[in-house]
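Message: A physicist's question: would you kindly supply an amino acid chain plus fold tokens?
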Amino acid sequence: MDRIIKEKISADHLLYVSLKYTKTSEVIMNLLLRWAIMIEYGFETMLKHAKKKKMIKSIPVSPKPMMDLIRETFKDEKVIIETLDLYEMFRRIETLKKESEGEFRKNVALKVNYRGEVIKVNLELLKDYSMKLEKFINYLKQFLSS
């Protein structure tokens, strides 16, 4: 859980400090990658705990089977499904077609082509993602304490 909290602190710094002063799409990219790492740590921790509770038999090593197992095991948990959807995009962000908009300005954004649609990742959307990930961490803490 400590690794997850450290990643969250780093991501929050990128969101609330670095992005405020630099306003570049590169900071947005780094933030999304940092969130991907944080989510991955969270999923690994969840699966280890689920294995201890005998909810699952084994933990897959590669990401795709791991995501499928999480989606199946926690299908009733809206927070987990939303986080999985975000994670799928975040972990592929480097390979997706991207375009910067409004660099060094108040309305800096990163346009990402994902699943046939253009997603405009701006400050407003980043704050929305941040709130969803906060809910994920709260759920994770609750799950680990059960």
Q: What stands out?
A: The beta strands are 98-101, 109-114, 117-122. The first helix runs from residue 2 to 22. The chain has five helices and three strands. Residues 2-94+125-145 form one domain.
